[in-house]
Amino acid sequence: MLTLYGVYRSRASRPLWLLAEYGVDYTHVPVIQSYRVDSPKAADAPLNTASAAFLAVNPLGQIPALVDGDLVLTESLAITLYIARQLGGPISPQTNAETALMEQWSLFAATAIEGPALEILNTLSSATDTPEGQAHVAINAEKLRRPLARLQAQLATHDWLVGDRFTAADINTAECVRYAQAHPTLLNEFPSVKAWIERAQDRPAFKAFWQRRLAEPA
Description:
Radius of gyration: 18 Å
Number of strands: 4
Strand content: 5-15%
CATH topology of the largest domain: Glutathione S-transferase Yfyf (Class Pi), Chain A, domain 2
Structural class: mainly alpha
Helix content: 40-55%
CATH class of the largest domain: Mainly Alpha
Number of helices: 8
Low-confidence stretches: none
Distance between the termini: 29 Å
């Protein structure tokens, strides 16, 4: 049975959403980030990324991590794609070309979108009313306009990223774009991207996953 280490409020969100789509049994070990241990809400966490037991799984001390037999994976996007290939069905790639496309969109999201989108989310969560914070948001929004335009071009003529159906590529990419939803107007510039992520987040599995995320300590 698959064992997934991590919490919903982390990049483990990607494989956790995917597993909610499949509805299969798996072992979930809720490892929190070590920097959150001092939080009153997380003070009783039994396992964190600095715990010796977890470092034996992933010496980098990062979540998520997946164990499947002798295989250990420690990158969220790779974990999501691996689970999809293992479990099959329409969410998974059906051809070698689809495998390559799902890898392409996942890597594109990680390299072109996640960094500036996360900067926007973190800045708006902590410094939204300061001139410095607003300038930082504007800089990172500008960094996102080119990759979001690339997504817009794809999604203007397709409901989903690969094979005209919802796949693991949509999960990996949407979970990176989600950070940019914190910006009040940016996604309005890219209506097909906005409609796509809203369509993905309207899926029953996402809603169930999100309720579990909200139930976790912040």
